Amino acid sequence: MSDQPDENNDLLNNNTDTTAQEPNNTQPEEGSSKKKRKRDRSGEEKDKKKKKRDKDRTGDKKKKKSSSKSDMSDSLKRIATDAVKDIFNQNKEKQFDYVNLILKADHAMRPIWVTPDKHIFLETFSPIYAQAYDFLVAIAEPLSRPENIHEYVLTDYSLYAAVSIGLSTEQIVKVLEKLSKVELEKSVETYIRDATGNYGKVKLILQKNEFFVESQSIKVLEQLMNDSEIKGAVKVPDPVQNSNVDPSGRFLVRMQSTTDTDSYRLAQEVKALTVAAEKNASNVQDGDDEDEENGDGQEDKIKMYSFGIVAEKVGKIKERCIKLDLPVLEEYDFRNDKNTKLDIDLRPTTTIRSYQERSLSKMFGNARARSGIIVLPCGAGKTLTGITAASTIKRSTLVLCINAVSVEQWKNQFKLWTNVDESRIVCFTSTVKEKLPLTGASIIITTYNMISHNRKRSIEGQRIMQQISEREWGMMLLDEVHVVPAETFRRVIEVVKAHCKLGLTATLLREDNLTDDLYFLIGPKLYEANWLDLQKKGHLATVHCVEVWCPMTPEFYREYLTTNHNKRQLLYVMNPNKFRACEYLLKYHEARGDKIIVFADNIFALEEYARELKRAFIFGDTSQAERIEIFKKFRTTTQINTIFISKVGDTAIDLPEATVILQISSHFGSRRQEAQRLGRILRPKGQGKGQNSAYFYSLVSLDTAEMFFSSRRQQFLINQGYAFRVLANIDEQIRNDKDIIVESFKGKAQELTMLAKIKAADDTKGVLEKVKQDPDEVVSQKSRSNGALTLGGLSGGESGLMYQEYGNASRAKKGASTSKHPLFKNRNK
Amino acid sequence: MVNAIRGVLLECDPAVKQFILHLNKENTGSHSGFVIMDLDETHLFVDESIVEYLQEKLDDLHEKSYQFKKT
């Protein structure tokens, strides 16, 4: 780099040479700096950084103009200019040109930028960061929240959520305007008004086991009733039964008061915010304060009109309403619900953390319960949040989990945190079917599979299902709610009638983009925690994410280039350099006394690694007893410090003692999997070696497809604020480190034997393990890579979750025979 | 008499060298392979006319591995 200025001076002819050099100079420098560092605003132009890892940055507009296509044959220049051209060509719709945004005079005092494409950027180092953050989290969807600058986007759903907690259009627009460094674009303002204008107009109510659609204006109801799809589901009110039918005979009338305590509180918060913003801004406008005052505290009686709808069509109606731009608001007035109360209270020793309380306050805003989704990172106490919500509502609760292990865990948590009578908690899985108490409210914990099962059931199961579908549930808790949009699990929502639905998850991500469906299936996203924040407060362990680059050995790489798709995966996973790196890291961390989990999706690799390194391993076929034994030794003794786990370990296995995770092979670009694996080590480990840090290593083979997938997977974690460091020269470190001797693959001969083994191995070995419940719904490599449909997929077999009920029952078959009378042997196979 | 062949010395890491040899094999149709001599693990002696083509191919490889597809 230092040579270049001299060169510039020597080149007397072309001026364009020197300016064309600039993109060159800046881009490699930027590439070497931290991956997601956002640059500071310079004057009126803005550099927006998108999710690209290396050299793709938007340059200054002036620079772009001057990077002309000179007659240089310098290929480096070519690469640079091509890259810049690519960005601008790809995102033609997206205007990166913000020269037209009008900067306010006191922009230095304000914390946010609002761009015409509805993105909002927040500076975390601003003095009013905290309040601005609260506000933005309430009205916009967070995209990326690293250390210094956050990025949010305004979407329909985020505004919907804002309205459902009580913010009004005026408030939103005013505060956004106040906080923004640039003048609010007209397009953005109209968008907000349009989006919020329609929300809250229509409500869905469940009363006496019947659903009603309610609204303040008859016109809106008429519009809904006349819609072709909703027409069929409407139930005409019977004037004899109901005394409060309106004159036209179509609607029921109800009087309602409008004390909205939650929106009052929020209005106060917002007012405080505007006052603070005004103090920082040089212009003080008195008129605004009065506007805020008038909005709240009115006590009025208004007429609410409603019509009944058929229960089974509720989901369709909600979907239809969203399409008509009139999303339904669902609120459950649990305090006045006549249903039987459940005697449940949190134990006095139970403490709720601040973020759990915030998330619940979003849910229980105005003395009513809203349905929705709460997103908290793994290990942050989602279960406790759900239990607290259930204890607040104090009605019958249905809890849905993904597998039998979770069911047990939830039951234990209920017993641990609350004083509910144990006989009131009922587990319902394929192996365990406890009896429901005859009278009174109860808590049923079961799995998604059990409810959405549409094959034949046992008599016991049938009876319990009947009781579930007949009852009116106060609350339905959905654990790991990101699996719900799958076709097989949607039915759950239709089968069960619940007043309030709360979805809990750590990762609201799916690779098939069905997450939007969750919003009308369950409700808006009420709260999403900030991982970095929680880490700072000590609720989550500090994680150091490292990506270790392992070059491919020449023979392996040769084979990789020439072989077919399946084998390729095997080759880059079994890369001997990766093996060595893995062994080195294992020995290094074991010496420090850490507990290590190694994840490997590919069974062939898992077995090879574990056997070669002589460590314990667990995969789908490992027996339950062996798993329990290994876990026990891992937790309590130093006999086992490392476990190799396949996909089964991705969810629901609780290993809080692990401090290091190594990832040697993974499931393509699944961000969810990456996040959940990280969740294994997020629990804070205050005791122990006095450090609260954890390590997450991702081993990738250079120059292979693995690099591509790895950058995609890390995207989610980077957006949460974790920076991935790259360890590029681990072989140097291995050579230099005298204490640890790496033994595997010492000579070429061993490498070649491994290569031969791989070549001889069955093609299917290259495929990943198929776990029964594949939350990502990506079952086969082929259908993902070509987008082609498999026959299984067309007939509903492979797309969607592979619903199979064989779980523990099939394992029992292998061992002792279940004693069944010959007459009933063929029942529910 | 000494016979001198003109060429370009290529230095790279072992993995990329394999890639180039792979390309070489594919190209035996047009030339008889552009690699004149395989020197050692990290060095190759190639025909000078092939440099431009190699550059392109390496760019493609780089893009395939590192480029981040827009979701």
From TrEMBL, chain A:
SMART domains: DEXDc, HELICc. Residues 48-67 have a biased composition (Basic residues). One of its GO terms (molecular function) is 3'-5' DNA helicase activity. Residues 580-738 form the Helicase C-terminal domain. It is found in: Nucleus. Residues 10-19 have a biased composition (Low complexity). Residues 1-75, 278-298, 775-829 are annotated as: Disordered. One of its GO terms (cellular component) is transcription preinitiation complex. Residues 363-526 form the Helicase ATP-binding domain. Transmembrane segments: none annotated. The keyword Zinc does not apply. GO terms for biological process: nucleotide-excision repair; transcription initiation at RNA polymerase II promoter. It comes from the Eukaryota. Residues 286-297 have a biased composition (Acidic residues). Keywords: ATP-binding, DNA damage, DNA repair, DNA-binding, Helicase, Hydrolase, Isomerase, Nucleotide-binding, Nucleus. InterPro entries: ATP-dep_DNA_Helicase (IPR050615), ERCC3_RAD25_C (IPR032438), Helicase/UvrB_N (IPR006935), Helicase_ATP-bd (IPR014001), Helicase_C-like (IPR001650), P-loop_NTPase (IPR027417), XPB/Ssl2 (IPR001161), XPB/Ssl2_N (IPR032830). Its EC number is 5.6.2.4. It catalyses: Couples ATP hydrolysis with the unwinding of duplex DNA by translocating in the 3'-5' direction; ATP + H2O = ADP + phosphate + H(+). Coiled coil: none annotated. Residues 20-29 have a biased composition (Polar residues). Its main location: nucleus. Belongs to the helicase family. RAD25/XPB subfamily. This is DNA 3'-5' helicase. It comes from Acrasis kona.
TrEMBL record, chain B:
Signal peptide: none annotated. Coiled coil: none annotated. It comes from the Eukaryota. Keywords: DNA damage, DNA repair, Nucleus, Transcription, Transcription regulation. One of its GO terms (cellular component) is transcription factor TFIIH holo complex. It is found in: Nucleus. GO terms for biological process: nucleotide-excision repair, preincision complex assembly; transcription initiation at RNA polymerase II promoter. SUPFAM superfamilies: TFB5-like. It holds the Pfam family Tfb5. SMART domains: Tbf5 (SM01395). In NER, TFIIH acts by opening DNA around the lesion to allow the excision of the damaged oligonucleotide and its replacement by a new DNA fragment. In transcription, TFIIH has an essential role in transcription initiation. When the pre-initiation complex (PIC) has been established, TFIIH is required for promoter opening and promoter escape. Component of the 7-subunit TFIIH core complex. Belongs to the TFB5 family. This is General transcription and DNA repair factor IIH subunit TFB5. It comes from Acrasis kona.
